[in-house]
């Protein structure tokens, strides 16, 4: 039997296969291509291929800002007795020695893999809701 499909002869040859004869074919449906939807500004959604150049630059700038945030390796170190953040509030996991972490200007720390996607959606600290970009801009101005 041919596997090419879409061929009326193969349907006739397959009459004992249990397919119902005389059933009308499903109505033709227009397929819209699957394109990821971006939300460049709240309340506005746009297809990815319709982002303006300005919006693409804004996304690239945000990625650049995130990469400017100081990054490090979690080390409980000598001040382990102090009361300090030991848990990443995004994934609710305790930091372990050697975890790659990101320091926010408000001194909260998170896993790099947790905070980076968060900051792409909301540029605020998930613990204290401090806007990260404003703090960043002020540190840039003082430099
Ligand atoms: Zn985490
Ligand atoms: Zn914070």
Automatic annotation (TrEMBL):
Domain RING-type: residue ranges: 88-128
PROSITE patterns on file: ZF_RING_2 (PS50089)
Principal place of residence: cytoplasm
Record Pfam families: zf-RING_2
Region feature Disordered, mapped onto this chain: 12-44
Subcellular location: Cytoplasm; Early endosome; Nucleus; Recycling endosome
GO cellular component: early endosome; nucleus; recycling endosome; ubiquitin ligase complex
InterPro entries per the UniProt record, alphabetical: RNF11_RING-H2, UEC_component, Znf_RING, Znf_RING/FYVE/PHD
GO molecular function, one term: zinc ion binding
One annotated GO biological process: ubiquitin-dependent protein catabolic process
Keyword list, A-Z: Cytoplasm, Endosome, Lipoprotein, Metal-binding, Myristate, Nucleus, Palmitate, Phosphoprotein, Ubl conjugation, Ubl conjugation pathway, Zinc, Zinc-finger
Keyword Lyase among record annotations: no
Function: Essential component of a ubiquitin-editing protein complex, comprising also TNFAIP3, ITCH and TAX1BP1, that ensures the transient nature of inflammatory signaling pathways. Promotes the association of TNFAIP3 to RIPK1 after TNF stimulation. TNFAIP3 deubiquitinates 'Lys-63' polyubiquitin chains on RIPK1 and catalyzes the formation of 'Lys-48'-polyubiquitin chains. This leads to RIPK1 proteasomal degradation and consequently termination of the TNF- or LPS-mediated activation of NF-kappa-B.
Assembly and binders: Interacts (when phosphorylated) with 14-3-3. Interacts with the E3 ubiquitin-ligases NEDD4, ITCH, SMURF2 and WWP1. Also interacts with the E2 ubiquitin-conjugating enzymes UBE2D1 and UBE2N, but neither with CDC34, nor with UBE2L3. Interacts with ZNF350, EPS15 and STAMBP. After TNF stimulation, interacts with TAX1BP1, TNFAIP3 and RIPK1; these interactions are transient and they are lost after 1 hour of stimulation with TNF. Interacts with GGA1.
Protein name (Swiss-Prot/TrEMBL): RING finger protein 11
Biological source species: Poecilia latipinna (sailfin molly)
